[in-house]
Each structure stands twice: as structure tokens, then as C-alpha cells.
Amino acid sequence: MAVRLPSTPSPHFGASTVSLADGLIGETANPAIRVAKPRRLASTRRALPDRQLAQIVQIAATTGNDPALDCLLLRLHIETACRRGGALALRRCDLDVAQCLVRLWEKGETVRWQPVSPTLMRHLLAHADERRAQDPNDQVLRYHNGNPLTTRRYDHLWQRLSKRLPWVAAQQISTHWLRHTTLTWVERNFSYAVARAYAGHTGKSDAGTTTTYVRAQVEEVAAALATPRAATTQPPCGCRLPGDPEHRFWRGRPIPVPPAGTDLAHIRKQMLTRPWDLPHDVCHWVINKVGEQYITN
Question: Nearest-CA neighbor of 120 among 157, 158, 73?
Fold first, then answer.
């Protein structure tokens, strides 16, 4: 019978690991390998709607003892989708002003150059100059007194937001939600490949990590539910929906106009209702002529 791993590991687990590392016991004699790992629960983080994101920025900009710093923090995370560690590790020498790039040092010792807008670059430089970050190795983000920023600023920011926005406290919104928000927007408007690069996922083991950030949201599911069924049309051969990249005839392109003399309105009506009743010669033209054209393209 499998043994469940307790929520608070027993000292015996640590002792087994140390003994294994010191060569006191062999791999097969390690009792910890027979313990089943607990199932990892799915994250509740998701992309924030524009309305909620605007509320967060507004409260940060109008409350607290350093709203300029808080707004710069939020802009940096929203624009680059960086993690807290990447923002705190940002140094003066990591700002490539000429190309509008910032070098992010993040978890797993990963390093990447991330494009930013000229506006954000200008404010980062002004912030560094104003708060005496002049040396190339000086941390860019700093308090009013010039001391380097720490994670406590993030804690205070979200505590303040939680007091004024009940849904922030209820859902335990944090800085990492901004990363989900940006990456979801990038994936929806560009592609999965762009979102993966935007997130800094470059390793082979990261291939599926990006999907954690770009999952479909409740609002998108509701929009799909509200879409009339007639808006989804079936192709004449009764296969997949037009626009499906796996469909070997349509290739995601509009259905072409039939040859002259064909009743296009009648064909379109039948494609929406009973595509299997289309005349044989029309089906033959669509499947062969259109298929040949789109396969070669």
C-alpha cells in the first residue's frame, strides 16, 4: 500500500537524503523512494481582465508613500512579464538604452535580453539617476533614501491593494499574476512561440511550462458559450471546421468562390445546414480543385 507524504516532511526524509549523499546507504536501500509524492494542485493564477488591471494601477498611483516607485514596478512587470527576482536584480549595466533592451537575471540562473518601450527605458534611467544608482553594478530600483529595493516593497504594495480592492484579497492576487496577464495577451494576439520566448522559456523541459500561463480564461469560455452555433460552419466534406490548421483543404483560409454559373448563395446555405447534400460536382470541385490549390500553397 502506498504511503502518503505528509504536508510537513518528517526528519527521517532529510536524514535519508543526507545518508544517500554521504554514501552511507545505497539507492535501493533509501526508504524515501517508496513514498508516493503528493499530487501537485493546479495553480489558481490567471490573466487579469483589463478592468481589474486598470484598478490595480490606479490604486497604486494614488496611494502609498512612493506611488512613483509602485507605478514603475507595475509597468516593468506588465511590459516585460518578468518575475520579482528579475526586477530586483536589474542593474544599471543591464539597461541597453540604444536598443531599448533590459537584461533579466531570473530563476535557474537564466539570463535574457527583453525588449522594452522607450517610455519605460526613459523612466528607469530617470529613476536610477534620481535615486543615486550611478555605478554600473548598482541596483536600478531603489527607495526614496537611495537604498536598494527589497521584496518587502512588493508585500506592502499588495497589502495596500488588498485593503482597497476586496477581490485582490479574496483571490490572493500577487505580482506573478501580472506575468500571466501579459503572456496570455501575447499568446492570444501573436503566437505560442512568441509567448514562450517572451516568458524566457528556452529549455527543452520548458516546452509545456508556457501553457501554465496561457490557459483559457473564464471570460473566454463564456464568450464561446455565447457565440451562436450557426457561426461555426462545416466544410463540404464534413471534416473539421474551416480555419483548423490540421484541415488539409482549408489551411485556415476563406472558402473560395465556386466556378462561374454556380449558385454561391445556395452553396453557402447548404454548408451551414446540410453540407452532405451538396451536389456531387460541387463537392468534387471543392475537394479536388481547392484541395490541390491549398495543399500546394
Answer: 73
Is residue 27 scored above 50 in pLDDT?
yes
Q: Which domains does the chain have, with CATH numbers?
A: 3-36 (no CATH), 50-212 (1.10.443.10), 231-296 (no CATH)
Closest of 124, 112, 111, 108 to residue 76, by C-alpha: 124
Average pLDDT over residues 118-123: 93
DSSP H helical ranges for the chain: 11-21, 50-62, 67-80, 84-88, 118-130, 151-164, 166-171, 175-189, 192-199, 218-226, 264-273, 280-284, 291-296
Distance (Å, rounded) from C-alpha 279 to C-alpha 265?
A: 14
CA-wise closest residue to 90 among 74, 76, 78:
76
147: three-class secondary structure by DSSP:
coil
pLDDT at position 133, please?
A: 94
Strand, helix or coil at 208? coil
CA gap 238, 275 in Å, rounded: 7
pTM of the model: 0.61
Lowest-pLDDT range of 30-34, 44-48, 116-120: 30-34
Which amino acid is located at 27 in the chain?
Answer: E
Contact 121, 100 (CB under 8 A): yes
CA–centroid distance for 206 within its chain = 13
Q: Is the pLDDT of residue 245 over 60?
A: no
Quick one: average pLDDT of 126-144? 95
